[in-house]
Amino acid sequence: MSKKTVLFACGTGIATSTVVANAVTEAMKERGITIEPRQCKATEVRSELTGVDLIVSTTQLPSDLDVPSIVTLAFLTGMGKAEALDKIEGELRK
Amino acid sequence: MAEALMNHIDPEAIVLGVDTDSREAVIRLLAEKLQAAGYVKDSFADAVLAREASMPTGLPLGHAVNVAVPHTDPEHVLKPGIALATLKKPVAFANMEDPDEPVEVGLVFLMALNDKDRQIEMLQEIMATIQSEEAISGLMQASSVDDVAAVLK
């Protein structure tokens, strides 16, 4: 599979999205998917979507984006992490 | 476990058993500590509060004590560090995932962040800590900075 670009978003674009980007990139590597991570503020996703395959955010995103998105706290709280990874893998293998 | 989270928390910025009804009071108290210790500019507290209103940081953990990790943009920060408060009774923050949903928070990590690369370890350690029920209950029972250090070392 070719490299997938995932946009990780959070309120500031430097804090929780960094934790999530690391966790997801490593977990997907183990599942055979190479991710090119990008990060931004949730309020700025609309202007960052070029070439993006999936958005993973810790906070609410603008509605009607043209790219699939997953909002989850699983990588911060540990709750539902396996399910969130399955969902991300499912989107990236589409 | 978070072996080195204590390295990022300033002992001068640890406040245990805070007794208040408002998240603003908790944030201002911790911001004051960070400012006195040279971590943040005087614009930091207002910036954190503004961000908390639109982009909240409450994290529901599914056990007795929930956590909030307030922070803001790097321009209000001088150097990275963390302030910690335990609350005598929970205070309402909003859920990071859904600003309309209140989260009763008992443990607050106020984060001064200004360097994406250097923060990764610090953030991962906070998240590892809050994923441990044992660490959270140890922090909630702490009555001194030494108690906190014993949990986080």
UniProtKB/TrEMBL annotation, chain A:
Pfam family, one: PTS_IIB
Phosphoprotein found in the keyword field: no
Matches recorded under SUPFAM superfamilies: PTS system IIB component-like (SSF52794)
Keywords noted in UniProt: Phosphotransferase system, Sugar transport, Transferase, Transport
Class of enzymatic activity (EC top level): transferase
EC number in record: 2.7.1.-
All residue ranges annotated as the PTS EIIB type-2 domain in the record: 4-94
Gene3D superfamilies assigned to the protein according to its UniProt record, in alphabetical order: 3.40.50.2300
One Gene Ontology MF term: transferase activity
Official protein name in the record: PTS sugar transporter subunit IIB
Organism: Nitratireductor aquimarinus
From TrEMBL, chain B:
Record carries keyword Transport: yes
Alphabetized UniProt keyword annotations: Sugar transport, Transport
Domain PTS EIIA type-2, residue spans: 7-153
Pfam families for the chain: PTS_EIIA_2
Classification via InterPro entries: PTrfase/Anion_transptr, PTS_EIIA_type-2_dom, PTS_SugarTrans_NitroReg
Designated name of the protein: PTS sugar transporter subunit IIA
Organism expressing this protein natively: Nitratireductor aquimarinus
Lineage: Bacteria, Pseudomonadati, Pseudomonadota, Alphaproteobacteria, Hyphomicrobiales
